[in-house]
């Protein structure tokens, strides 16, 4: 590790854990126009709730259990985290929407004015700033989705920064 890299690690004081099985190149790049047309087709585990808001993204008899999206959910450090790629940057938020628990990893990515990029939750269409997780609309809610810093290695390896290890790291096997 270079001196610069080790200094940066020390500065933000986070615990960076590798994301198993997912690299930068495995995530669809929202910035790439071609990839926008070939989004992940994912299984939706709560189709009844999803149906309320996602008819526009569905086009087959079976589509009530699938949805196209850019994000990808990963389990790490006792948490489920949504990853989104924009160019060479990866953004990470909690995968459960802070409004009512919707699947934020299935969010649409939208560009707002002033260069802000937001996530639009598929359940009730609330939007959150992808960078800091603050709710944007509806206005005045002051709800924040937890966000995590992500470091991208030279080979596309991803590491997510946490405040500490999750509880299971301290469980003892007897
Ligand atoms: S659960 Fe996400 S907007 Fe309601």
Automatic annotation (TrEMBL):
Pfam families: Rieske_4. It comes from the Eukaryota. This is Rieske domain-containing protein. The keyword tRNA processing does not apply. PANTHER family: FERREDOXIN-RELATED (PTHR21496), RIESKE DOMAIN-CONTAINING PROTEIN (PTHR21496:SF25). Keywords: 2Fe-2S, Iron, Iron-sulfur, Metal-binding. It comes from Aplysia californica (California sea hare). Residues 57-159 form the Rieske domain. Transmembrane segments: none annotated. The gene is LOC101852412. InterPro entries: Rieske_2Fe-2S (IPR017941), Rieske_2Fe-2S_sf (IPR036922), Sol_Rieske_ferrdox_dom (IPR054716). Signal peptide: none annotated.
